[in-house]
Amino acid sequence: MSRTLAASSPSSGTGGAFWQYGPEALLTRLDSAREGLAEAEAGARLSRDGPNEIGETARRHILVDLLHRLANPLVAILLVAAAIAGFTGDLASFLIILVVVILSTLLDMVQEHRAQATAAALKRSIALHATVLRDGDPIELPVSAIVAGDVLQLRAGDLVPADGIVLEANGAQVNEALLTGEPYPVEKRVGPDPDASTPAEASGAFFHGTSVIAGTATMLVVETGARTRFGAIAQSLAAAPAPTAFERGIHKLGMLIARLTIFLVLFVLLAHLALGRPPLQSFLFAMALAVGLTPELLPMIMTVSLARGAQRMASAKVVVKRLSAIHDLGEMDVLCTDKTGTLTEARITLVGRPGIDGEDDDRVAELAAINARFETGLKSPLDEALITHMTGRPFDDWTKLDERPFDFERRRVSVLAEREGERIEIVKGAPETMLALCSRAQDRSGDLVAIDEALRSRLIALHDERAAQGLRLLGVAWKPAPEQDRIGDADEDGLIFAGYCVFVDPPKPSAAEAVARLEAAGIRIKVISGDAGAVVEHLVASLALPVEGLLTGEEIGKLDDAALAARVDTVDLFARVTPDQKVRVVRALRARGHTVGFMGDGINDAPAIHAADVGLSVDGATDVAREAADMILLAPDLGVLADGVVEGRRTYANIMKYIRMGTSSNFGNMLTMALASLVLPFLPLTAVQVLLNNLIYDLSQIGIPFDSADASDLAQPRGWDMPGLVRFTAIMGPLSSLFDIATFVLLLKVFHVDVATFRSAWFIESMATQILVIFIIRTTGPAWTGRAHSALVVTAFGGLLAALALPFLPFAAFLGFAPPSATVIAVIALLVVVYLLLSEVMKRSALRRTT
Ligand SMILES: Nc1ncnc2c1ncn2[C@@H]1O[C@H](COP(=O)(O)OP(=O)(O)OP(=O)(O)O)[C@@H](O)[C@H]1O
Ligand SMILES: [Mg+2]
């Protein structure tokens, strides 16, 4: 049983690692059979061993989360401040600080948990599946339902979902780079491997997290979930994506604010002490300032904005796996895509089968179809088209002896087959590769002729003519293989050329419009295909895609990284490239400073999807491609991608609104406070009032993620723009300070109010200017033309009302407020209106684009 087996790791000394046992021994130990488990037994094992998952650690328990948040330095400062206030008998400060801490922590927690739940639900909707034998029949199950003893059918493109051993293998090659660092695939065959001491040596074993890149295999599952050897590593690698450029920018900004805050707080504290103000209150005031100046809501606003973006994208049929990829999507200025299945339908049909004289010859299609039928690796749509074409014309009299599966370096498939004692090797693949391997050709009557220069150029011309019409071609060749049971390494040339199979692969109807929208949105489209140059050129022409330049894999092979980087900007088409070269092109583009998206569906695309800033895949793609991707398009319509880009930019625009609001009002407050500390004979606000101010301001901002964005924000890729932000802050911050100071002067010199009234009036002025300015700066156009989202209107005016009401409430005195007179309120209202008008004028230059 799996329990005992789980205990018998090499270190426990009770036996060897599982791969040291043969299939029969393990089948007995796991109480399973080659036909798999019975459904009931599998169910029992699932409830005993738990689901085949590792990710659960990612979710913290709610109490742990709470503790984590309370350990945050800002909260700690507040709690210390509350304790000091409590000891000195300042009950109001004590209670209010506690309320502020509890409210803002809860707000943060609830919002973030909801955002995470949304993201997790979206992820579940695209969970991986595996083919499992249950009660003897192959069924598709989510990988989480796999248990020890299950028998799985793996094929090229699948991720290995658990640890286990090979029961059968057919040309199965697995990429184990994750465990061994070895980029080349290793061949899997039936074990045992009694001498293998490490997983890398165990060629009869499969490990969770590796991927099948060629062939097929049957696997017996031995360990699942956290008990797998490398699952945990794979998970942690996948879980820590590098921060995006946007996140790095925000982090830098955060550090800058933190430094300024410390500086200001020390300044204010020292100034007050030097001027002989009461030390305790000065200290509390300084602490409250520190809290008020920190954009503590920023992480929450970001998560909520991203989760909302992800939700909206999901309703537009784009599932986001990595939330922060939404920033990258909004910033993306180059989209690389492969061709089949992304730009085209991938519903391919055979439309021609010319022999060497250019006329259709059924024998060509038949040879190709035999090859396609016996091919066990990744069945491409080309294979399906060949098999469909031959329906009704059975080739049951052929038997298969051996195969060399397709891989993207060789670009061909070889099959050794036999009929009535006649053995031949049939090869089909990329035409130029095939021609290079052939020395003879077969004509219509079956006679063999040598391929001389004249014939070779006729064959090339035949190919080029069809390819220029956008048709895809495969070359087909064969050779007699008497007495042979295997395809040896030396059997790769001396082939007899039979002819071409010609296919159509029409572009998706939506593709032309979608690429036009993407181009209009400032995104350059580049096609990176394993197919021939002429085919790719024809396709982009039919999509009316404005592209220039063409580089082939052969040419890329001759360029080093620097030379390639020098070319990628001016070349939009890449043909006959290998998977490795797809990655090189993506890296070269990134090195040129582009934010690069890569969209693909095959095993050959997965490394490039991973290397891009935004990896994109489609619903029908292979597991490896889907796993590597950050986002998955569920609809065949490429238009959803253009919608997704808009969503990414809107999310970015809303986060920027919050950041602009926060930094400029903070900077303004800093200036005001520094000045006030020097000239005012008392604290401009009590610590409690500063905290209340902060809390209400935060609450008023919660509606921002729901807001719409300017058309101009959506029209072009947008990245982190630090100079723009600095300029905005430098203009808008001092403007708000100016009005704060005007308020001071009026209150003290004209109205001669007492301290409590002063604080109430200034509290109202400061809240009103900070909150209302969102309606000015949410758009670059005139503020009155666009309508803010009702959620934003509700939170903003709710905050404003709360601020206005506080000094008039029965417990106002408890908070240190006294109600200002109607005249004072009227004057403040006037000031606020003038401030907003001036902001409307100044924002033109403050919001001007630098990028
Ligand atoms: N099953 C197959 N049998 C023989 N040759 C194949 C097979 N599949 C692909 N090829 C050859 O390998 C080439 C590259 O494969 P493929 O077109 O899938 O690459 P790709 O980069 O994904 O291209 P695309 O942009 O069309 O998706 C094909 O153009 C074809 O010549
Ligand atoms: Mg492809």
UniProtKB/TrEMBL annotation:
InterPro entries: ATPase_P-typ_cation-transptr_C, ATPase_P-typ_cation-transptr_N, ATPase_P-typ_cyto_dom_N, ATPase_P-typ_P_site, ATPase_P-typ_TM_dom_sf, ATPase_P-typ_transduc_dom_A_sf, ATPase_P-type_domA, HAD-like_sf. It is found in: Cell inner membrane. It catalyses: Mg(2+)(out) + ATP + H2O = Mg(2+)(in) + ADP + phosphate + H(+). One of its GO terms (cellular component) is plasma membrane. GO terms for molecular function: ATP binding; ATP hydrolysis activity; P-type magnesium transporter activity. It comes from the Bacteria. Residues 17-90 form the Cation-transporting P-type ATPase N-terminal domain. Its EC number is 7.2.2.14. The chain crosses the membrane at residues 66-85, 91-110, 256-276, 282-307, 760-779, 791-815, 821-838. Its main location: membrane. It is a multi-pass membrane protein. It holds the Pfam family Cation_ATPase_C. Keywords: ATP-binding, Cell inner membrane, Cell membrane, Magnesium, Membrane, Nucleotide-binding, Phosphoprotein, Translocase, Transmembrane, Transmembrane helix. Mediates magnesium influx to the cytosol. PANTHER family: CALCIUM-TRANSPORTING ATPASE. Belongs to the cation transport ATPase (P-type) (TC 3.A.3) family. Type IIIB subfamily. This is Magnesium-transporting ATPase, P-type 1.
